[in-house]
Each structure stands twice: as structure tokens, then as C-alpha cells.
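Moderator note: this is an archived Q&A kept for reference. The question asked for a predicted structure of one protein chain; the sequence and the answer are reproduced below.
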Amino acid sequence: MTDAFARVLGIDVGGTSMKAGMWTRRADRSLGDRELTRRRPTPQDETAADLLAEFAEALIAEYGPVDAVGLAIPGLVDDEAGIAEFSVAPTWTNLPLRDEMSARLGGVPVVLGHDARMGGLAEGRAGAAVGCRDYLFVSLGTGVGGMLCLDGVPRLGPHHRAGELGHVVVDPGGVECGCGQRGCLETIASATGIARMYGVEGVSAHEVALRAAAADPRAAEVWHTAVSALATNLLATITLFDLSLVVLGGGVAQAGDQLLDPLRRELAERMSYQCMPELVCAALGDEAAVLGSALIALDLLDSLGEER
């Protein structure tokens, strides 16, 4: 296989499932069409890293060698050192995942990144934020994550903590978050938070959205609370960074205009001198992070080529 037509494997390690895709690089060094899509449940314990490696090994054994692997993982991530610093689901702490995966795969180069940042990267290169240099990607899923892109560069921060919108406090007297603070956005506007606020066992955030649209008073109140908390968070971020675009992804954003319309109204009512950014839903759905993981694998190959 020539360098121009290298193959990369991308895996998104989600809280409930691992999604994988394999791509071949075109002659112009862009990603070609995806060759495969596979999913596997994510274990919720310390076996996750071993089963992730087995998943990658099985794909490579079945479909042939790859030149680089990209991983999108949850929790706290040190992208540069390749360390999965902390995650609750799956469970790991200070795991040198990049090096361990590379060793398991016979020395294949591996790169990893935070799953929300990978989603934002993919939306910027191939989705709703193509051509935009200053945008915010917000993932409203089981938790709330984000990626801030300024002047065309995704910002990690010196401690690899940038973009953690879910842990910005919007209700100081609110419920305790898994991070230890109270009233984080994640406790209110995530799918988990919306379902918790509605308080009926077995009713998901998606069902709450449907009931709110059908004029269920309790569901409408919960939905309004989530939208209001998100508006509080976004207004602060817009004030700080003067963004031109906000892209909303994750399961909660699948509500579409039911989320976007009241969110636009809330922001417009609160703004004074700020400029309203364009608000759109993500274009890549739940495939964004796996595509982003393949893109950073491609970037890794390019950087290794420059070093040679």
C-alpha cells in the first residue's frame, strides 16, 4: 500500500457502545469513502481497555492492516500524552491508552482525543461548520461536552480541559454533579438531566421532548428549564468569544426546531450588545466522533510523514 493510499481505523468509545469505521486516504490526502461500520457494547468496568484493543484487533484481522488508529474517548483526556486520565463509563484512571493500544496492535501509530472534541472537529471539516473559523460545538447527550474552535484552530487549553461546557455552573443551588460541583449544565440539559427532572421511571429525554410538544405541562416545564440553562451557558460563551456559529449535537439536539426555536428566543431576549450567532443542529449525527477519530489518525500520518 502506498503512503498516498494509507488506511486508517477510527473508533468512538461511547458510554454504551463502541463505533468503528475504516477509511482509505485518497491521493489528495483526504478521506475516501468508509469501508466498514461496526458497533460493539462498551463494558462499564475495568475490562473496557482490553475489549477495545480486542475490537480493533478483530477488525484489522478481518479487513486487513491499517496505518494509523484514532480513538475518541470520554472523560478527561490528555491528547498530547495519549493518556485517558479519568472516565466513569467506561472505567479508567490515568491509563496510557495510546501506548498500550499501539503495543497491542504491533506498533501501529495510535492517537486519541476527547469524544466531544472529535465530534466538533468532524463537524468543522465535513459537517455543519464547514468553512467557519469561529464556532462552538455542543454535544447534548448522556452528558454535555463541547469543542471551541477559534480562528480555525480547535482549542484544547494548556491542561486539555477547554470546552467543558457541561461543567459550567448555571444553578449554584442545584443538584450535585458527578464532577463534585452543584448545578452544572450537565445536570439540567443533558439527556440524563432532563429525564431526572421529569422524574418518571423509564421516561427518556426523547419521550420528555415528545410530551412537551404535545403540551404535557410537566414535560414543557422541564424542557423550558433545560433550554433556559443552555441559554445561560451559551450567552456567557458568546460574550467571551464572539462566535459566528453554534452547532448543537447529541441526542437532545435531535429535537431540532423544538430546541432551536426557544433557544434562539431566550438568547435574543437576554442579549444587549452581543451579536447573535447562527444556531444549527449537527449534520453528522452520532457518527461525528468516529469520523473525527479517523481524521486525527489521518493528521497523525501526515505529521509522521513530515518528520521522515
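Archived answer notes: The longest strand covers residues 31-41.
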